[in-house]
Fold this sequence. Notes:
The protein is an alpha+beta fold. The chain has one domain: PurM-like C-terminal domain (Phosphoribosyl-aminoimidazole Synthetase, Chain A, domain 2). The chain has nine helices and 14 strands. The protein has helices at 12-26, 67-80, 101-118, 148-158, 187-195, 212-221, 234-246, 261-270, 292-301, and strands spanning 43-45, 48-55, 61-62, 65-66, 85-96, 121-130, 136-145, 178-181, 224-228, 249-253, 284-287, 308-314, 320-323, 329-331. The strands form three sheets. Strands 9-11-8-12-10-13-14 form a seven-stranded mixed beta sheet.
Amino acid sequence: MIIRREDGAGGKYMAEFLKKHIISRFGDHRVGEIALKDMDDSSDFDSYVFTTDSYVVSPPIFRGGSIGSLAICGTSNDLAVMGAKPYIVSLSLIIQEGFKVKDFDRIMKDVEEWVEKVDLKLITGDTKVVSSNVDIIINTSGIGVRNQALENNLAVVREYRNYPYNWIRDCGLREGDVIIVSGNIADHAVAIMLSREFEFDIDVQSDVYPVWLFVKEALEVGGITAMKDPTRGGLANALNEMAEKSGVGIFIEEEKIPIREDVKGFCEVLGLDPLSMANEGKVVMGVVEDLAEDVLKALHRAGQKDAEIIGYATKEFEEVVVETEIGTRKVLPPPVADPIPRVC
Length: 344
């Protein structure tokens, strides 16, 4: 047997691969409350959370950003959805011999821009130049810190129910929690495809963005019980992970899901499901029902004008169920893998 591309592309096959070959060996390793087997966006120690990620996007410079934007925003987003303020980051580079210096400088400029906007400290890293056909690969590790907005959110949630976690966990949904998505989905994946010279006349840019800049505003309102950033596998994968880990079903209204009409049309023409396509600046969150409208307003005030309530958690069923625009219902399964390789 050999390792397949699907084994690292998000979705069902990747989860199976990780559980069989990695989680089976190291799953019980933990320092704080979050073990490796929990497969959360970050793990914790003391008053911090820690994450690491590698980026292999092709092309490395694309509509609306670059691999440098992805590295900083993506890693800070894995911290932010735990409720942590992004604090420290590392930067490790694998660069193909012959890679253009002007492209490298553009990528480093993007790294610098987002490090400053997120208020991160880049304090360590590594650089290798290789002959392999990789263009450029970036690994970033990040540390996030507890903060007053997180503490406020946890206190508010505990006014409504027992919440045993010290961070916001993707297993924190309970029946009745409202599901909010912070903005239009599938923009990043479509921007990558258009950067690969697809002949479509639509102006779509990647949504790559540090979600902490608006998540902190929602935390200050309080009531958030679960969060994920829907990267590989998209909204479908994020919802299924949250439902399975929380032991609830999720009901979604298709007409409520924010998506640009031109992006929807692009996906229809190519036979792609926008719900399974990667995003790099969005959050899916569960919120206590009584506070959902207040959190939504906070997201709108923070610039996420397309944020929308799309459904709720339920005990009526165990799956993610979508009510279509014509009124029928269908199960939304977890994707087998991200349909577009090297998208992040």
